[in-house]
Design goal:
Layout (H helix, E strand, L loop, with lengths): L2 H9 L6 H12 L5 H14 L3 H13 L14 E5 L8 H10 L4 E5 L9 H5 L11 H10 L2 E5 L6 H11 L7 H15 L3 E8 L8 H17 L3 E8 L7 E2 L1 H12 L5 H17 L6 H6 L4 H10 L13 E6 L4 E6 L1 H13 L13 E4 L6 E2 L4 E7 L5 H8 L3 E4 L9 E5 L1
Parallel strand pairs: 1-4, 2-3, 4-5
Antiparallel strand pairs: 5-13, 6-9, 7-11, 8-10, 8-12, 9-11
Helix pairs in contact: 1-3, 2-4, 4-9, 4-10, 5-11, 5-12, 5-14, 9-10, 15-16
The structure holds uracil.
């Protein structure tokens, strides 16, 4: 076998054989296929696609590049969720404690953010003392005791994906349905959860810009789950506007705490409850999560989950050294608050990183003071820009140009949950 033949086969639109897939994924993981060869293959896959059989085999090869987590019985059913990533998407933070408060256990192995969408670990690392890295024994003990763990993925879990994802990120090959589906599902299958609910985002702030593409991705992932005996469902949800009012690490933690205490923005509550419902149904728990969330009963689970990983849930969150307001230049109704524009602004303010080696600013981000549908008067604040590097503000404002629009008449906003694949 050699890499050039595999690249040429896919470049010319041919189906890869099982042997070619097994070989190329293993050889890339071992360093026997070079980054430039894998980049060319990833681009050929992005352009020419893979059929369901190829995607299934590619996923299996990525799982086999490492070890399965092999969690012991923790006395509760294991169920996880994965979002394809969006702006202000802090849902994992209230969701994991909520589902644990309802009787399941959530092993959420997460990553750091790259580009305009934030990473769950970056958000939690804004809590003083909180530690992302746990051993497998610590994960199992916390699942049995608290019922929820959000931590860094272990180095032995699908190492082929770690290498390939970093490569795709710098070669314009992230937005390939076969590559996204196999990347996400290989990690979740290797993690050993019993059930999985996928939140597939659609809109300007998401990888998938149209419902058709999002449905195609969701169907590919649900099919991979079924092939591997993992009970999988997917919701298609809107990402044309940020979720909630906060986009940025500490800002999103603060908003999640509001939700866990029974308050918070309506869309964050709605999506948290919708995903929790799917997760609980999947593992056969007949509990309505809505009153549990509203009552604040998930908040003590959050406190225990944070404290178990060295964090102080009552410590003040970092504050930015500089806050600038963006104000409405006319009166009317906010008709557009574009997720991609807000995500890029938050990223430029320091909430995200351009290279994986970069550090993020815990306090940086965007806080919306008006959301689509809200009436504003000329001069009212539309959003706050938070940063420790004021020189970044003009860049953030440039990203927001045209992204926030005030008009005379309201427009009909899309539903938050656009569809489901069960
Ligand atoms: N998230 C992943 O884990 N992998 C992808 O390819 C895209 C989003």
């Amino acid at each position: 076998m050699n890499a050039i033949d595999v690249i040429i086969a896919k470049r010319d639109g041919r189906r890869l054989t099982d042997e070619q897939i097994d070989w190329v994924v293993a050889a890339y993981t071992d360093g026997d296929v070079a980054d430039e060869q894998m980049s060319a293959l990833a681009m050929a896959i992005l352009l020419n696609g893979m059929d369901a059989g190829e995607i299934a085999r590619w996923t299996a090869a990525m799982i086999d590049s490492g070890e399965r987590l092999d969690l012991p019985d923790v006395g509760r059913p294991l169920v996880d969720k994965h979002s394809t990533g969006g702006v202000g998407d802090k849902i994992t933070l209230p969701l994991a404690p909520l589902v644990a408060a309802c009787g399941a256990a959530v092993p959420q192995l997460s990553g750091r953010g790259l580009g305009h969408t934030g990473g769950t670990l970056d958000k939690l690392e804004s809590i003083p003392g909180w530690r992302a890295t746990l051993s497998v024994d610590e994960i199992a003990a916390q699942l049995a005791d608290v019922g929820a763990v959000i931590c860094a993925t272990t180095p032995t879990l699908a190492p082929a994906d770690r290498k390939l994802y970093a490569l795709r990120d710098v070669t314009g090959t992230v937005e390939s349905i076969p590559l996204i589906a196999s990347s996400i599902m290989s990690k979740k299958i290797a993690e050993g959860t019993f059930g999985l609910v996928l939140d597939v985002k659609v809109g300007t702030g998401a990888f998938m810009k149209t419902r058709e593409r999002a449905r195609e991705l969701a169907e590919a992932m649900v099919r991979i789950g079924a092939d591997h005996g993992l009970a999988t469902r997917a919701l298609l949800t809107d990402m044309s506007t940020p979720l909630g009012c906060a986009a940025g690490n500490a800002l999103e933690v603060a908003e999640s705490v509001e939700v866990l205490r029974g308050g918070g923005p309506a869309d964050v509550v709605e999506l948290t409850v919708a995903l929790a419902r799917e997760m609980l149904e999947l593992v056969g728990l007949d509990v309505d999560p809505a009153p549990v969330l509203e009552s604040g009963a998930a908040y003590p689970v959050w406190e225990r989950m944070i404290a178990a990983q060295g964090g102080d849930p009552s410590a003040p969150l970092p504050r930015p050294s500089h806050v600038e307001e963006l104000r409405a230049d006319r009166s009317g109704v906010v008709v557009r608050c574009d997720a991609h524009a807000v995500g890029t602004a938050a990223w430029r303010l320091g909430a995200g990183r351009a290279l994986k080696e970069h550090a993020v600013q815990a306090a940086a981000g965007v806080l919306l003071r008006a959301r689509p549908g809200d009436e504003v008067r000329a001069g009212d604040p539309l959003m706050e820009l938070h940063t420790d590097t004021p020189a970044a503000v003009p860049l953030a404002l440039a990203a927001l140009a045209g992204g926030v629009v005030v008009a005379d008449e309201p427009v009909v906003a899309p539903e938050l949950v656009l569809g489901a694949i069960r």
